[in-house]
Amino acid sequence: MSGISDPVSNYMARLRNAQQAEQTYVDIPASKLKRAMTQILLEKGYIKNFVNIDDGKQGLLRVYPKYDEYDQPAIRMMERVSRPGRREYADSDNLPEVKNGLGVVILSTSRGVMSDKEARRFGVGGEVLAKVF
Predict the structure, then answer these.
(1) Most buried among 39, 92, 97, 115, using CB within 10 Å?
(2) pLDDT score recorded for residue 116
(3) Total domain count, the chain
(4) Other CB atoms within 10 Å distance of the CB of residue 57
């Protein structure tokens, strides 16, 4: 039921399940937020690639998970932080880190969706959507 009330949790679960099953790609219902999150995962090297598929409705994101030479997923941990029932915010001075900066925190800010490193550079805070390592 989480897919209906929380699209971000649904997105993360689909990606996590695809990696567990060692699938070459996974199709996820598209939105601007999910596209931005996927772009961050691509830039940080957690996925191989993604493409937008127009299905005549809201569209799909076809995400290609990344695996190492031992077929282990590049995303070791993906955790939803802010939830519909309990929103989590951080100001620019108190942005969280994952594994002392080795992971990435995905934030929704007034300047759009960005990583914790970008938010520090711009001096903005926002809603802490997810932690990825």
Answers:
(1) 115
(2) 98
(3) 2
(4) 8
Structure tokens at 37: 């999150």
**Per-10-residue mean pLDDT for the chain, 133 residues long?**
76 98 98 98 98 96 97 96 97 96 97 98 98 98
Which range marks the domain in which residue 91 is found? 78-132
Dist CA 131 CA 80 (whole Å): 7
Q: Residue 73 falls within a domain, yes or no?
A: no
- Predicted confidence at residue 34, as pLDDT, reads 98
Please check whether residue 16 lies inside any domain of the structure: yes
Task: Determine, yes or no, domain membership for 1.
Answer: no
For the beta carbon of residue 124, count every other beta carbon within 10 angstroms: 17
- Torsion from C-alpha of 6, 24, 19, 118, nearest 10 degrees: -60
Per-residue pLDDT, 4:
64
- For residue 103, what is the domain's CATH number? 3.30.1490.10
Task: Show the tokens assigned to 127.
Answer: 């809603």
CATH code of the domain covering residue 46: 3.30.1370.30
Alpha-carbon torsion (86, 88, 89, 94), positive or negative:
positive
